[in-house]
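**Sequence with structure:**
===
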Amino acid sequence: MDLPEWRVEPGLLDYGAAVATMELRVEAIRRGEARELVWLVEHPPLYTAGTSAEPADLVDPDRFPVHKTGRGGKYTYHGPGQRVVYVMLDLDRRGRDVRRFVAMLEGWIITALAEFGIDSGIIDGKVGVWVAMPGATAKIAAIGVRVRRWVSYHGLAINVSSDLDHFNGIVPCGLSDPVTSMVALGKTADMAALDAVLREKLPALLSDMG
């Protein structure tokens, strides 16, 4: 099966424009008129509200723009220093297994972070990818997906050098656990280095999906 198109967006991308572009691409993929797409972006500071968002979890509604979105999950933050990866795959051809798709995203993050010396994993009952810290676990990556007629979109967000204070305007994903980043863990990393590792790891993970 062909690999998806790989696109890295320069600068900070407006969130509404990103969603509109994804929706058009999803329809084109469904109709067989476009390739699958992995789209790597950064956004200006903003909060997004998933389909399960609770009003009480928006602690500071005036801090940054708030966007309602159709992805699963609760509130999350996007901003500079965070690699957002929008994954538009034709799951009709790749097995129609949403749980397996999410597990692929988790494994993708975990194997990529390992290349930077970060030991991460998943926790039963909690969405995302986590790292152990003294006395606690902290989230380093979030996952929120939507599937329309078996084409996926939205995706994942990895905190590279994010301003962690920006997460304080929400209860991220409805969880009170701390949030961390690659830089906060003392790792030297930039977007280009992370992107290269993500691109290297993707083919094997997609192959495992079928």
Q: What stands out?
A: The CA atoms of residues 36 and 78 lie 23 Å apart. The beta strands are 5-12, 37-42, 46-49, 66-68, 75-78, 82-88, 120-123, 126-133, 136-148, 151-159.
